[in-house]
Structures are given as C-alpha cells and as structure tokens.
Design brief:
By secondary structure, this protein is an alpha/beta fold. Helices cover 35% and strands 14% of the residues. The chain has helices at 2-8, 44-47, 51-62, 76-85, 114-124, 165-182, 186-194, 273-277, 286-300, 318-329, 345-354, 371-376, 383-395, 414-428, 466-480, 493-503, 510-518, 532-541, 547-550, 571-582, 600-603, and strands at residues 34-40, 66-72, 103-107, 139-143, 159-161, 199-200, 205-209, 215-220, 228-229, 257-260, 262-263, 282-283, 304-308, 335-337, 362-367, 400-407, 442-449, 486-490, 565-566. The chain has a six-stranded mixed sheet, covered by helices on one side. Strands 15-16-17-18 form a four-stranded parallel sheet, covered by helices on one side. α14 links the parallel β16 and β17. The longest helix is centred in the first third of the chain and has 18 residues, at 165-182. The radius of gyration is 24 Å and the shape is globular. The model has no long low-confidence stretch (mean pLDDT 95).
Length: 613
C-alpha cells in the first residue's frame, strides 16, 4: 500500500504530512504485537504540536509487545485523492490500513473536531456505530479533556480513558494482549477493560430521560462501576517524557521542543476547564528538567525550548530554572520561550531575560474588562498589575501587545464590555501620553465567546444567545475601530454556540453528529470549511433544539450528562465557587493560602508537589 500512497503524493499540497519517516519515528514489525493507531482528528501540523500525543507514542513504543503509529486527518486534497484511488485511512509509519489495528485511539481536544472523527472512521472502512463493529474491527477508544463529557460521541466509541494515560495505556495494552491471546470476544474484552480504573465503556450505561428532556438517571450495567474517576500520576517520572520526539520535516503550529515543567493549576479561574480537571499541581524538579531538555535537544536538533504548562509563570523555581537553562543551552544557539505570561511585572522581567534581543510581541490575558468581572471569574489580577506589566514591557523594548478577553461571561454587563475598550486604550499609553517620549504601543484585542464547560463552576450557566454575543462584538468593534493603534479580532459566535452545544450535550446528540457528517461537515474548526447552515439542517432533520444544551441555565439538582465521569472534584465545591462568583468574591490559590477542599488531593492518589517548597 505504501507504493499507492506515494503515487498520489505529488498531487497534494503538502506531501510531507503523509510520509511517516521523520527523524525519531518508530518502525516495528507488527507480527505478534498489540497494534495501536494514535489518532488526532486534525491535520499533521496541528497534531504534531500536541505533546500528549508524543508522550503516548513514546510510552507505547518502549514496550516490546506493542507498536504505536500516528494517524491524522488527511487534508481536503489528500482525502479526495484517497477516495479516488480507493485508499483507506492509513498509519503514517507503516502505511498499513488502520482498520487492521487492534486499537484506534482518538484525542478529544476540541468539540468541533467530532465530525473529523466520523470522517476518519468512514475513510478507514470502520463502521461508525460501535454497535455495528465486529471482531474484525479495532476497538475505538478516546481520551483528552473532552473525554470528561464524551456523551455526544457515545454511539461511536467503544471505550474512553479518563485522565492521564501514562499508566492506564499500559494496562489497556496488557488487557488487550491477554484477551487477544485467549480469543476473547469483543464484549468480553470491553468487560475486562471496564475493570481498569479510569476506563469508561459507554455501551455499559443506560440513560433515562424526563419528559422535559433532562436526564432522569444513568444506570451502570455489565458490572461496570457506577462512577468512573480519572487516572492521575503522582509523580511526573522522567521515563514518561519523550526525550527522542518525532521531528517533523515541515513547519508545525509549535515548531520547537516542548518541555512540560509541571501539570495542573490551582489559580482557580472559574471558566477554565483545564485548571479544574488537571489538578493537583505536580512540578518536575529543576535538575530533572535541565537533564531532560539537554537529552531531548541532542536527539531532536531543535533550536528552541518552550516551557509548557497551564501557567508557566507559576513554576515555583522558575528564576533558577531559566537562569540555568540559558547558561547551559543558550551558548549552543538554543533559545527558551515562555508560552504564557501573567499580567504582572515579574512575568515581564523574566520575559525580558528570556527574549534578549527579540521584541516581536507580548501576549497577556486580562480575560475581562472590569475588576468586578475579573473577581467574578477569579482572575486575580488588577488593572494596576496589568498596566505595570505593559509599561515594563515597553521600557524593555516591546512595541506591541496582544490582549485576550472573553465576552458573554456570567453576570457581564455593558460596563464590562466598555471596560475592554478602556483597558485597551490605556495599554496603548501605559503611562501618560508623551512620557519619556515613548511611542504608543500597538495593541491587538482578541475576544472569544464564553463557553460553559463541564466540571467548572460555570457548568450550570447558559451561554449568551448568538444575537447577544454578536451585539456585544459589534459594539466593541465600533468602539475599538476608532483607535488607530488598536486592532480588534473576534471568534465567530456561531462556532462558539456549537462548541457549547457539544460541551454540555448528551448522547442524543449522536444522531445530529451522524447527520452533520452525512451532510458533509468536517474541519469545523477551520473557518473556510465550517458551515453553520449545514449544522442547522442537521439539527432540524433530527428534530433537536440546540439551544436546549447551550442557552439554558441548569439547576443544582439537575443530573448532568457527565456526572458519572469524575476528575476527582467535589460537585459541591464547584457550586460553592459559583455562589462566590455571583457574590464577586475570590478564592485564593491553594498553594499560597488555605485548602478550599476541591476534592482533588482528597480523592486522587496524587498530591500537590512543588519543585521549591
């Protein structure tokens, strides 16, 4: 089949996406091994920027009894060529059809990639519905942040792995190996997998609904647990990190070495799902990070190291880590980057140290335009902090700054919207106009629309209607377009609406997904391919009201579609945080203050671990 693939590559735009022979790619003979297709439902350059994929690839391929290969969504031109030539979806390393693998695992990073999953299954020749698959087909699994509510995909997935998969993937491989040797049926294999902590088999759960459309009950069957709790690793062991990452031949979204310095976040931003579901915080030691960086750089040839985490500036030993990294690798022409900065002078001072000689742009995320609303969302940064950071950046030589905000946040009013305008204007001149003869800063304001996510304090809150979101966008645009030094960008409200539908949806949305796929929906996260009209037709054809999921406030007593899938958090904690939000009260970071008893450290086999106590 490799020859057939190579014949079509001269006719596609970026053939390097499909070669599979990059530096550090792993090639194994499949005979006698458990074969795993690690599938990312987007194009190569997006998929290869995902560190989680490289970690799973590394862990599976370390084993002598397994092989993992990469499977990505072919771009439109390649898909057309594949269909024309009768080529099924293939794994990059071997070129073998993924329908012949034992496991096909999808990463669920974004709700608007769900139609790509269905399209990839169709291209592979695998029945879309899990109920129609036989022993001849791979088991289709999924994991990632959207796995905390995989219910819209329940009809299409055989099983889901909740949480961190460093250890659970090895257990899945072991069970599949044993079941394969014993000649176990598909159902018997799924029953064995459901006994692994953190594994959820949707077919083993029956959902009943009330007359008003809300969930009445979720009942476990086949001996499955009533509730599935995420897997978590207590220590980020060095052996988990891929020190020989696959190095692409072409540019990717993040074309650099990604060094995960810690996992988790306890800042407690109430809109942020990642900050809730990845708890507790576990930091790698400075010595370990230095060793991993040097080893991975030698094996990859990258010339930039990006310090990855949810909030890099919160790493407890950051100043020492940066100093030693720059000393050890800076002399070799390798740079260090900080992907996220807090809006304070400390962050800017460190950024100045890291970006010596380079002042292309700075990114800060105030999130809301007023202090009142920042307190509601628990974004513990003041306007003074923010302006001091921009002033420090300007003095250090930065000439532009990007500011990220959300619109449609709970309790938001027009004063909050106009506060975005006021803050952006102040960012142009962080000190008095003409002070020290400084030039004005170039400011880019970017707004996204609030999407209520599962397992956050705002999971009960509705999303603003598209009409209201678009009205706020127009008002802000009219204000900002008057300013010569400010550029305004915003995310389309219709896409955010659909994201909210599937973020808070239940398994009845499976019929809508199937219909959208039949209508040609795919690459919905790409504006040139997204079709709101086709999606609305799919909802109409399935007699489903999408506003029931996105725009409806939910009561405390309502059973959520994801209540039986736990990241270890207490639901009472989330509700209390919602009440504090409505009162405009903040909850301090538990690393610096008292424990709010969120449940993570109480219920999970992991504790907060800092590199510098």
């Amino acid at each position: 089949m490799r020859e057939q693939i190579e014949r079509v590559l001269p006719r596609v735009e970026k053939p390097a996406r499909y070669l599979g022979n990059e530096w550090n790619a792993v090639h194994k003979d499949h005979d006698g091994l458990v074969t795993i297709g690690l599938a990312f439902p987007d194009v190569y350059e997006v998929a290869m920027s995902h560190l989680g994929l490289q970690i799973l690839y590394h862990i599976a391929n370390k084993r002598m009894d397994a092989v993992a290969e990469r499977v990505f969504a072919p771009w439109i031109d390649m898909e057309a060529e594949m269909r024309r030539a009768g080529l099924p979806l293939f794994a990059l390393e071997s070129g073998k059809p993924v329908r012949d693998f034992d496991l096909l695992g999808f990463t669920l990073q974004y709700e608007m990639s769900y139609t790509n999953i269905l399209n990839m299954l169709e291209l592979a020749g695998i029945p879309l519905l899990a109920s129609e698959r036989t022993a001849e087909h791979p088991l289709v699994m999924a994991g990632g942040p959207c796995a905390y509510n995989p219910e819209p995909l329940a009809d299409f997935l055989d099983f889901v792995v909740l949480g961190e998969a460093e250890e659970s993937l090895e257990e899945v491989i072991q069970v599949c190996k044993g079941c394969k040797a014993a000649g176990a049926s598909r159902k018997e294999t799924l029953e064995a997998l459901s006994r692994i902590a953190g594994v959820y088999v949707p077919a083993f759960y029956q959902v009943a609904y009330q007359d008003d459309g809300c969930i009445a009950a979720v009942e476990a069957t086949q001996g499955a647990p009533a509730s599935v709790r995420k897997r978590v690793v207590d220590f980020l062991k060095p052996e988990y990190y891929p020190t020989s990452p696959v190095v692409p031949y072409m540019g990717t979204v993040h074309d650099r070495l990604m060094l995960e310095i810690f996992r988790g976040c306890t800042r407690g931003c109430r809109f942020c799902q990642a900050g809730m579901i990845y708890r507790p915080v576990r930091e790698r030691t400075r010595e370990e990070l230095l060793g991993l960086a040097q080893e991975a750089l030698k094996a990859s040839g990258h010339n930039e190291v990006s310090l990855m985490s949810l909030s890099t500036m919160d790493y407890s030993d950051l100043e020492n880590l940066l100093g030693e990294l720059l000393d050890k690798i800076g002399c070799e022409g390798v740079s260090v980057s900080l992907p996220s900065l807090r809006a304070d002078s400390f962050s800017v001072e460190l950024a100045k140290q890291v970006h010596a000689g380079k002042r292309s742009g700075l990114t800060l995320a105030p999130e809301a335009g007023s202090q009142r609303l920042r307190d509601v969302i628990n974004k513990q940064v003041t306007e003074d902090d923010f302006l001091a950071a921009i002033n420090g950046a300007q003095e250090a030589g930065w000439q532009s700054v990007k500011l990220y905000f959300m619109i449609g946040l709970p309790t938001e009013n027009w004063d909050d919207i106009e506060g975005i305008y006021d803050l952006a204007r102040k960012a142009v001149w962080p000190r008095a106009r003409g002070s020290n003869e400084k030039k004005a800063m170039k400011v880019t304001v970017s707004t996204s629309s609030f999407v209520p996510k599962p397992w956050t304090p705002f999971q009960w809150d509705p999303q603003d209607s598209m009409h209201d979101l678009e009205k706020k966008q127009r008002h802000l645009r009219d204000l900002l377009y008057r300013e010569r030094n400010i550029t305004y960008k915003y995310h389309d409200a219709d896409l955010s609406f659909l994201e909210a539908v599937f973020a808070r949806g239940d398994r009845r949305l499976g019929t809508v997904l199937l219909r959208a796929h039949e209508l040609g929906c795919k690459f919905d996260g790409w504006s040139e391919h997204f079709s709101y009209g086709r999606w609305m037709q799919a909802f109409a054809d399935c007699e489903t009201d999408p506003t029931f999921y996105a725009n409806r406030e939910r009561s405390r007593a309502e059973i959520m579609p994801w209540d039986h899938l736990s990241p270890g958090l207490e639901k009472d904690f989330l509700w209390k945080e919602r009440e504090l939000a409505l009162a405009g009260a903040i909850t301090p970071d538990c690393r610096l203050d008292h424990c709010p008893v969120c449940g993570a450290c109480q219920h999970l086999p992991a504790q907060t671990r800092l590199a510098k106590e």
